[in-house]
């Protein structure tokens, strides 16, 4: 059986002004304790699953994984190899912030099996990077890309952010052009979300920074697609663009609602009809493992209605959408049987369409994707429960 594997490294050099990811200051963290704990979790999970699972994708994310030494990351990856089958062609990604990489570290990671690097570029303007509270300048991005290429990485992603307070459409065009000049195989272009209570939210509320008007944010979204598609990238997910053959395999596992195991504090897993999330606090996470327990903070058994809803709203993130035949094979039910009336309504509104047996977002549906997705959460569209789940009506259409 195949499974995706995610490793969460919950440490960063500093906290960015918009961050609500689980990350703690690396300087004061017990990173050695973290490495031991995550190795324990991997070993125990590997032993608990009877058949040796084959990896379908591996992703080391954070936080900033590259605040750990390359030797520490290599030790964790060696533990993964001992307990999972690591196929030769496995796509194995590590996220890196530009100011935390060097040639020798990248070479070591390459030797330990990492073959894809995802660099947090975010913007080409140092003034906007400062607004975000990032610890790098654009020159660091150039240096990191150069080092990654020298170290032999032929699959490189750049993360970009639009909608930064003070950013203009012209700035965004320049960021896209600067990213393209670095010749990445993949670009992830996200719209900035500002969590309440973050440094950036406080500064905006005080009027210290100008918010990007909604129409301009929409223009940025459209510009991203125009520019990157024209440059030969395939727009394969709402925020993700790839050269042909370079779609991120691990993220495809998420969007296709397939199984993955997550290791490390705050890591999420989807396995055997369950989702669970690990303890966020690295000390609590390590203590529970040391006590012989699983470090799980929340666990949910997924009923069939939930699994179908997740398959819909995750799959609709992909530009190709959700395959009717794949859905039927997986759940033994036609899309129409489960979501018929709702799908018709969204089609009438011009938000969903059919293409080659796939149901997908229209051009008009793309910028309001979250509104479409809400319709599939909690079984809201289910006209009837599948026969195996009782046959009674569960929600309005
Ligand atoms: S690098 Fe990422 S995870 Fe770390 S503080 Fe910044 S936004 Fe948060």
Describe the structure.
The protein folds into 2 domains: 2-254, TIM Barrel (Alpha-Beta Barrel); 304-389, Arc Repressor Mutant, subunit A, CATH 1.10.10.920. Helix content is 39%, strand content 21%. It has 14 helices and 17 strands. The chain has a 9-stranded mixed β-sheet, with helices on both faces. A 3-stranded antiparallel β-sheet has the order 12-13-14, with no helix packed on it. Strands 15-17-16 form a 3-stranded antiparallel β-sheet. Helix 1 packs parallel to helix 2 (70-83), helix 1 (31-48) packs across helix 10 (282-290) and helix 2 packs parallel to helix 3. Bound molecules: iron/sulfur cluster. Iron/sulfur cluster is lined by residues 12, 15-16, 19, 21, 23, 62-64, 97.
Q: What's this, in brief?
A:
It contains 14 helices and 17 strands. α1 packs parallel to α2 and α6 packs parallel to α8.
Secondary structure elements and their pairing?
Elements: E1 2-9, E2 11-12, E3 24-25, H1 31-48, E4 54-62, H2 70-83, E5 92-96, H3 103-111, E6 116-122, H4 126-132, H5 138-150, E7 156-162, H6 169-181, E8 186-191, H7 199-205, H8 214-230, E9 234-237, E10 240-242, H9 249-255, E11 260-263, E12 268-271, E13 274-278, H10 282-290, E14 296-301, H11 304-315, E15 322-323, H12 324-331, H13 335-348, E16 352-355, E17 358-361, H14 369-374
Parallel strand pairs: 1-4, 1-11, 2-3, 4-5, 5-6, 6-7, 7-8
Antiparallel strand pairs: 8-10, 9-10, 12-13, 13-14, 15-17, 16-17
Helix pairs in contact: 1-2, 1-10, 2-3, 6-8
Bound molecules: iron/sulfur cluster.
């Amino acid at each position: 059986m195949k499974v995706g594997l995610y490793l969460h490294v919950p440490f960063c050099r500093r906290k960015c002004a918009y961050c609500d990811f689980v990350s703690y200051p690396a300087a004061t963290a017990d990173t050695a304790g973290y490495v031991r704990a995550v190795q324990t979790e991997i070993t125990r999970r590997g032993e608990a699953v009877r058949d040796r699972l084959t990896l379908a994708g591996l992703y080391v994310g954070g936080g900033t994984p590259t605040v750990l030494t390359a030797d520490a990351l290599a030790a964790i990856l060696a533990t993964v190899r001992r307990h999972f089958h690591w196929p030769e062609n496995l796509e194995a990604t590590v996220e890196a912030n530009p100011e935390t990489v060097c040639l020798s570290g990248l070479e070591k990671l390459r030797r330990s099996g990492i073959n894809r690097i995802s660099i947090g570029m975010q913007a080409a303007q140092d003034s906007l990077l400062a607004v975000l509270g990032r610890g790098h300048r654009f020159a660091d991005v150039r240096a990191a890309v150069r080092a990654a290429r020298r170290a032999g990485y032929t699959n490189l992603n750049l993360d970009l952010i639009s909608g930064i307070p003070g950013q203009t459409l012209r700035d965004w065009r320049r960021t896209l052009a600067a990213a393209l000049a670095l010749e990445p195989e993949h670009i992830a272009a996200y719209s900035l979300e500002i969590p309440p209570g973050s440094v950036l939210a406080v500064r905006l509320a005080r009027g210290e920074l100008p918010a990007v008007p909604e129409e301009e944010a929409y223009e940025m979204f459209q510009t991203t697609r125009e520019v990157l598609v024209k440059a030969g990238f395939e727009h394969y997910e709402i925020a993700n663009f790839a050269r042909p053959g370079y779609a991120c395999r691990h993220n495809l596992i998420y969007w296709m609602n397939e199984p993955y195991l997550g290791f490390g504090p705050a890591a999420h897993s989807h396995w055997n009809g369950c989702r669970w999330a690990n303890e966020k606090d690295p000390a609590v996470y390590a203590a529970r493992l040391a006590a012989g327990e699983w470090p799980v903070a929340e666990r949910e058994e997924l009923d069939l209605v939930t699994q179908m809803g997740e398959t819909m709203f995750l799959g609709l993130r992909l530009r190709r959408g959700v395959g009717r035949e794949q859905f039927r094979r997986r759940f033994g039910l036609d899309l129409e049987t489960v979501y018929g009336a709702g799908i018709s309504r969204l089609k009438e509104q011009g938000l969903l369409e059919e293409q080659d047996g796939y149901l997908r977002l229209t051009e008009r549906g793309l910028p309001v994707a979250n509104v479409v997705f809400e319709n599939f959460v909690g079984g809201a569209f289910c006209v009837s429960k599948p026969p195996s789940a009782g046959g009674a009506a569960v929600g309005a259409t």
